[in-house]
Amino acid sequence: MGFPKNFLWGGATAANQCEGGYNEGGRGLANVDLMPLGKDRYRVGTGEIRMFDFDENYFYPAQKSIDMYHKYKEDIALFAQMGFKTYRMSIAWTRIFPNGDEEKPNEEGLAFYEDMFKECKKYDIEPLVTINHFDCPMYLIKKYGGWKNRKMIDFYVKFAKALFSKYKGLVKYWLTFNEINMILHFPFVAAGLYFEKGENKKQVMITAVHHELIASALVTKIAHEIDPNNKIGCMMAAGSYYPETCKPEDYWKSICDNRESYMFIDVQSWGYYPNYALKWVEKQGAVIPFENGDKEILLNNTVDFISFSYYSSRVSSENPEKAKQTESNIFASVINPYLKASDWGWQIDPLGLRITMNELYDRYKKPLFIVENGLGAADKIENNGKIIDDYRIEYLKEHIQAMKDAIDEDGVDVMGYTSWGCIDLISNGTGEMKKRYGFIYVDRDNEGNGTLKRIPKKSFYWYKRVIATNGENLSLEGLDLYE
Fold this sequence. Notes:
- Belongs to the glycosyl hydrolase 1 family.
- Helix content is 38%, strand content 13%.
- The chain has helices at residues 15-18, 41-45, 68-82, 93-96, 107-122, 138-144, 151-166, 187-191, 201-226, 248-270, 275-283, 294-300, 350-364, 390-408, 458-468, and strands at 8-12, 86-90, 126-132, 173-177, 231-238, 241-243, 305-310, 314-316, 340-341, 347-348, 368-372, 414-420, 440-442, 454-456.
- Strands 1-2-3-4-5-7-11-12 form an eight-stranded parallel barrel, surrounded by four helices. Strands 6-8 form a two-stranded parallel sheet.
- A hairpin with a 5-residue loop joins strand 9 and strand 10 (347-348).
- It has one domain: TIM Barrel (Alpha-Beta Barrel).
């Protein structure tokens, strides 16, 4: 059987991690611009440290990033050379509405993305657009408190409506919010949340995510009204939790941890909060801020497909304090002794992708789209100028094989696959350039030095062949000419 004929192969980026040009083209300041490199990045991202403006004592990698703002034609041409069928990208909210609450959009920002989409179409690359990928105007955070304020729904709806109207016929695949479950783990990045002293943090996060869920449902409705060809997906940070042992308490903990990951996608796919979620909210000493009509909005406007990121599986323990934890700071879990790990402590589990896909498909019975998957590694340029990243090829090969098994052996319906960071970009978690994911090397270091020159890696040529054979040839053989 293999992959469907119309399978959407490609790669993924996010505006805040690749564009740069943070103060060009009428763009306003966003929360993601203010994520510094270094030890305080995590605490800013979780809303523990207030950073509402640039501080000269820090370096902010997103200001310039890899300068795709000026180099997008060169980059899209390289994607086309690999044979991309789709390119997942996001739109910087503050390029379209610099403050977020303007009456009319910024025409220069609209024109920029229109040019990008037309450039994709020139090569028959289908854009897959994330409307909100960890991106919130700082003006809305300062004035309204970010997504904890219900007024954000109207601002977001206006933003999305402008996109659907302007890009009708150019874009048909949309994602409403990137990794919506990340609100519980990285709230300033995911929803512009900063916590005041004494606030019930869980209540603030639950309020914010409810507003995002209502906004997502409204936008799904509008997208279908403006263009019936539009397909709207939700997006979660996925990776199934395994119990540490067969001890019933560990197994129960894994069920609870998995539910916490699925909770908001349940709402977007099913149209209502399941009972376990209502109980979970109650246990947090919080309430869901329902208003009249909310339940109907959610029920009548569910998503068309389920998209997700997968980097690793996770492990649950009823006593995690006694167990050794992984180094990954945002989604730390108990270490799985049966798995190897990347240089950044992310455990590598290709079968976990197949397991996750089956769990999601069994749960939602809607087409899946793997929109992030990849290996962050420190690549080295050899003396001959080449980059031999066999470790990345091996990682991707095993995960693509697991995806193929889920399709062939298990009957899972999958629309496409976009590997994360198809071109090197700024890491969301650490802010580093050294943690590279791309098929294309970008000459820039952690401190922002470098020529920004683009250099295809060995994986570039490997992935080109994977796409050309529709996933049939995953071997490393025959790439010797590159070496």
